[in-house]
Amino acid sequence: MVPFGGWEMPVQYSGIMEEHRAVRTCAGLFDVSHMGEIDLAGPGALPLVQRLVTNDVGRLAVGQALYTPMCTDAGGIIDDLLVYRMGDEHLMLVVNAANTAEDLAWIRDHAGGDTRIADRTADTALLALQGPRAQEILQRLTATPLSEIRYFCFTPGVDVAGRAVLVSRTGYTGEDGFELYVDAGHAVQLWSAILETGRGSGALPAGLGARDTLRLEAGLLLHGSDMDQSVSPMEVGLAWTVKLAKGEFCGAPVLRRQKAQGVSRRLVGFALRERTIARHGFPIRQDGETVGRVTSGSFGPTVRRSIGLGLVSPGHAEPGEPLAVEIRGRGIEGTIAKLPFYTRPQASAG
Predict the structure, then answer these.
(1) 68 - beta bridge partners?
(2) Domain ranges in the chain?
């Protein structure tokens, strides 16, 4: 157990490698109740979120969710989050644990009197069942046909093992799966029911360690490592989340200029020839020149390589280009790699 964003979090249960393999081949159950849930309701809720995030929340139907950065006026990423369209005038934002208080303050600073804002983090538990057999395992605990919940859609009020659960087809592992929002008082019972049902199929509890190796293989970014308020969505490969045509929003003038003029650095993936791990902040070199810095790195158990993400100058960002990461005084050779490192077989999607 380690402290993380004000919570005590499990790094591992049976071991990172074993948990990682379980998610890739069967299913893993994560307790991610540290994530923040912020409720916004009222006639001003949708216009408020539209002004705060880069993606277009207006295109969401009730029962749909989307991924989006939330930026400062200078275009830096305050947080990356999920927006759930709960009703015509009701949204739920799911934010990173370490940023919950700051996000809440930012939202309240921009809100008018026509929006009711509530922090539901302490009342809400969040469990994530991820992997190719996640649907099969969860279906044993509910009569609701889970195959009808499409990717980035959700159904509230689902009876799962006798508990009312919001079931969302989302995740942070590169696998098919579900995120389950439940009253905090029912979390232990729901966790136990899922594990009891899934263990015979090979499902395991999984911690922060496997969550990190899984998301890295899938090319998914971590706020605080791969992005923060010093970088913009355009620099870290998230231009697809920036909908400049929707109207003005925080950071839009800067992002519009970056789209037109280009950026001074880009996020890339890389793979090393040795198993040595590239850590956050390590220099990335090409031809003896420092061209960037590592933002995330680990050994990828599925791809069986030491992999990472880094910010480099645009002229050094093409896949296949050689590089070296300076690790403990040595230049460990590798190449720029195309992202993601891992893509799940399409047949596993529900």
Answers:
(1) 81
(2) 2-216, 264-340
